[in-house]
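Support case: protoporphyrin IX containing FE complex. Customer-provided input:
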Amino acid sequence: MNTASVADTLRIGALVLGPTVARGVLARRPRVVRLAEAADADRRAGRLLQRMRAKYGPGPLMLRFPVRRLALVLSSDDVGRVLAGSPEPFALASLEKRKALGRFQPHGVLISTGADRAERRAFNEAVLDTAQPVHRYGETICVKVREEAELLREQIGRTGELDWDRFRVAWWRVIRRVVLGDAARDDHEISDLLTTLRMNANWSYARPPRRRVRRRFAERLRHYLEEAEPGSLAELVARTPRSDRTEPADQVPQWLFAFEPAGMAAYRALALLATHPEQARRAREEVDGRDLERPQELPFLRACVQESVRLWPTTMAVLRDTTTETVWDGTRMPAGTGLLIHTPFLQRDEETLPYADTFAPWIWLDGTAQESWSDIPFSGGPGECPGRNLVLLTTSCFLAMLIQRHDFRLVSGQPLTYARPLPRTLEPFGLRLRARPRAAS
Ligand code: HEM
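Agent response - structure generated as follows:
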């Protein structure tokens, strides 16, 4: 394993790590994201990392910062080694995640280790039905998704337009109803409290924790978990066996906040469909004439959402820490060394992926994405996102509802066409779509 020179370490810090952290690891800061988009920050970072790979070789590149040793993973084979080797010897509970998430979900699975982690992971998988393409509450979940999408469709029908603010409000209602129950539909406060906690956690060491906000959030969450409304994940939390290690209430905040980027992914997918006529036609073929009253797999729309998260990953840094001294290609990494997988680089690496900068939903349908460790928007291996199928069920159903009734056209001007490489950074906040009603299907 090579070690980067001081000058290269500083360059990587300034062009790769700095912009990633500045955008907000747990909650995006819209103004910084806009700046990153304007500066084409992820393309610059990608170019630098390609140069580093050419200079130092494809193996992980050690960066020695005064406070932290970080090995930057630069090839898909090494991504596979790291993800398949989680949680031992490569722990998901990295220093940065523990500092940030420890502020409001100290017993969350993502920052747990050993027997605690095993127990909490099993609990998450049991509630989220990780292995099932359609969650056992699929029917109820789809009713909630449909009702909110219908209301959004009415608004679109009145104004002929869709923007992120409207989409976001509808999506958060879906999140609260699915996770906490219908009684939480209009509880914007619980979402706002969680956003405040995530924004605060973005600062990791630099700002004191918001203890009052955390208490208030925990009280409201406890209320919904005690009510355990039938048909919600809160009900499954109450019904799923637990031990004294499980800490169920500390698992739920992650479900709530991880659902928000799922909305961003769905909205970007809609923008892609609005600018790619051939893919839009396939999506319409998938939903036309379908009875969306029933929960079902919609493979093409699922592929579009996965593609949207590949192109614009919502988890930009997948981090691991070595749990013991580990020797990698002859280099000794002491316990506690960080490993960093920068997904905007690996998932858009045009030196290795022919489809890097294009909208290519087919890679999720023909096995291409599964064959390599480059496309990991939901991570992979034993630490893969246990909510993946639930996300794909809810987002594909939501999108199906929208495209069944309207054709969309992007009117905010972002260059999302086949003619040019897709932008590496795309904030959802500024995407505006015009909608034209379709003949009833
Ligand atoms: C677009 C939406 C989502 C994306 C792209 C996504 C992606 C990811 C990724 C990349 C990880 C691994 C993080 C790491 O290794 O540091 C992860 C972990 C996790 N995700 Fe998701 N996620 C999404 C939504 C959700 C939802 C909606 C839920 C729950 C309802 C969820 C539950 C979890 C949990 C519990 C973990 C921790 C897993 C563990 O520690 O073993 N995610 N997710």
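The CA atoms of residues 93 and 110 lie 6 Å apart.

Case will auto-close in a few days if no follow-up is received.
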